[in-house]
Every structure is written in structure tokens, then in C-alpha cells.
Amino acid sequence: MSSIVTKFGGSSVADRIQLEKIKGIIAKDERRKYVVVSAPGKRFQNDNKITDVLYLTYASKEQNLPYDQLLQVVEDRFLAIAANLGSKVDVKKEMDVIRGEMEKGCSKDYIASRGEFLTAMLVADYLGFEFVDAEGLILFDEKGKMLVEETNKALDDELKKHDKAVIPGFYGSYLDGTIKTFSRGGSDITGSVVARAVKADVYENWTDVSGFLMADPRIVDNPKPINHITYMELRELSYMGASVLHEDAIYPARMAGIPINIRNTNAPEDPGTMITAEVGDRDPETIVTGIAGKKDFTVISMYKANMSSKRSFIRRILGILEDYSCSFERIPSGIDTVSVIIPGQDIGGRLEEMMDTFKERLNPDSIEADEHVSMIATVGWGMSKRPGVAARLFTAIANADINLRLIEQGSSEVNIIIGVANNDYEKAIRAIYNEFSVEA
Ligand code: ASP
What we know:
Helices cover 38% and strands 21% of the residues. By secondary structure, it is of the alpha/beta class. The strands form 3 sheets. The chain has an 8-stranded mixed sheet, with helices on both faces. Strands 13-12-14-16-15 form a 5-stranded antiparallel sheet. Strands 4-6-7 form a 3-stranded mixed sheet. It starts with a strand and ends with a helix. Bound molecules: aspartic acid. Aspartic acid (ASP) binds at residues 10, 38-39, 49, 51, 115, 169-170, 184-188.
């Protein structure tokens, strides 16, 4: 039977006003049968996120500091929501259970998960849906890795029994029943695994923005919304996606061929962004789907004569990065040259020391480091097999008087990556956006 899984983020469940919006959204399409919720987020700028308060509670207990007031903040927030909704849920009783577990020395994951737990109970009661706990359904092995197939089966078996259900996001349990959370923002993953298990038509991820924008609105005025993006493009634009959708939420929906629709609880009539595997019937004139970047990379470039014929040169570079626990963003290379692009924060204050290690272990003819580099990815299916796109991009950069530090094209042909000085970052994004937003 067809169904839609809806996941509502922290701002969508922040108070009664938001929850009323959710009710309206659910009522609009009877396929919206399975609802996944986060814990209440901020209602105003200086407000607290319930999950943050719960983590703080645990940290205080660990430091032998009083934490009662913190738990009271949590209780008051849920009591207010329950009262405003006229809920039958006994928040006080649930909070007493949590207090008891705290006294017994519960785990950090247990306490962190209680925001989603209580929210799901309240939302289920308010919508007249059943509450289905994620404990015992979303399963983790002893190393904390989700057991993908076991989870799928457990969710499928259980949710079959419920026509309409609310499931708390963010957590599941180890096989022995103890609670285990995903990383922060992990309710998105819950929504995706539930969508896979019930074979949903769509996984709707409701948040407080109308999907992805072509560029960062703090840099470009009023950027165009992205109506459609493929999983692959989104991956290439990972700098941009991270704040809207948890990276690990893509895989379960993707493997089941379920589109993800990012929607805005505060503007439910907006179509949002649809994420699918295929380009479908997207306007063929759209060349660039999105532009995203990040500052503060360090580029270490090496030259060594006949590098290409030296075996294991790249392997040894990677070995050094591993020794320093550095990730690398990309490794553009030429016949006798190679650069490694490393997030500056991974290097910390160790650049000089690392340079010495590279010299010692690789003996390059020359080596130099370029700090404060920004990487910008320009991504779009329409770029592949279309001549002249790179020329337009580089001309736009040149006309803006920006010096290009490096150029890389992903092997997928849907991505052109450039490196510019941090100081030119915003200017470069605006130049690329202005060049390509006209037809996009
Ligand atoms: N409440 C959790 C967090 O703040 C999970 C989520 O909202 O997705 O990270």
C-alpha cells in the first residue's frame, strides 16, 4: 500500500504552534502514515535545544554537579507542550522514570535519546497515531554500527502491524536492549531507514527551509531554490548539504530507490527540493545545479622528477596523512607533481613538522604549502558532455579578478572544483552564480 514517511526536525516540533502545522500537513495527504520526530529545537534565537540540555545534564552528573535544574528545564518544556495540546501523556511520570535512570547511572545515549522519546509520545497522542518505540527496532552491533538488514526486517515486521505510527528519531538499541544514538542530527537517518522498511513512495524531510538553494544565501542575494537534485550531485555538493540533511540519511532511501523531498514546515505549499537517483525530465537547459564551498584548506604541493614512474609515491603520502590523522579532500596530480588538499583544522599547528616529514620520507625536488585556501564546487548534470562550461566558469573568475590556485574536475564530469584564496571566496561564489543562474 502506498505511504509517505514524514520526518519533522527540531524546529518543526518546537512548540504547539509548530505541532499544529504538522497536523495540517499530515491531514493533507492520507499516505502520510509514518511520522518520525526529532526533539524540540529552538523557538527563538537564544532558546535551548532539548538534546543540548540533555547532554548537559549528563555532563553535569559526570562532574558531580547538580543537574536537577537542567532536567527541570526539559520537564517544563514538555509539560508546556502537553498542556497546550491537551495531551493525555503523563510527562511527570515519564520524567520520573528518566530521573530514576539517571540516579542508577544511565548511559549518555539513553539520556540524549529521551527528547525524541517524549516528543514521539506527545505527537502520537496529538495525531491519534500509535507510538512505536525505535528501541529494539533500529539495531546496532557491539561496535555501534547499524545492523542494516536486521533493522530493515525488524521495522518492516513491526510497522506492518500499525496503520499509522509515530517513531522517535535519533536512536535505536544494541542487541541487548541498551539505547544507542546516531550522531547529532541523526533523526534524518531514522526517517530514511523507516522509509526503506515500509517501502514508502517518498521520504519527506520537513525542516525550516524550503529545500536546498543554488548557493549560500549569506553570500548570494536571494539564490534560486533547487527543485531537483540527484543523490550524486548532492554528494558532490556535500559542503552545502550537511546542514540540511544528515549525510548518512541518503544511503537507505537511495538503496531502496525512494526519493527524498526536503520540505518547509513553515511554508508547506513550497515544493522544496526533490532528491532522486535519476535526472528524470529535468529542464535540459539547467547546466549548474548548485555551487558550494568551504574555507581554510591547506594545499601541500610536491614536485619530483619522474614521479609517475616511482612506485608507491602516493601510497607513502597517504601513509603520512594517516600518521598525522589528517583526512584529505582531494589529491590532484600531474605527471611529476602532486598536491594534497587537507582541511586546515586537521593540521592544527603541525604544518612545519608535517612538511619536514614529507621531505624526509619522500625526498621531493620541491615542496610548498599554501594555507588559507577555499575550495568551491560547481556541480550539475548539465555540465557533462556540454562544451564550453569550464571556459565560462574560468572567464567569470578571471573577470572578477580572482587568482585561481587550483582546478580539479571530478571524474564524474558533473563537478568542477576550484581553489581560491580565502579572501576571494565570497567573490568567486558570486561570480560563478551570476554566470550560471540565468539559465538554471
Ligand atoms: N535531537 C538530535 C540532535 O539534536 C537528533 C536530531 O535532531 O536529528 O542532534
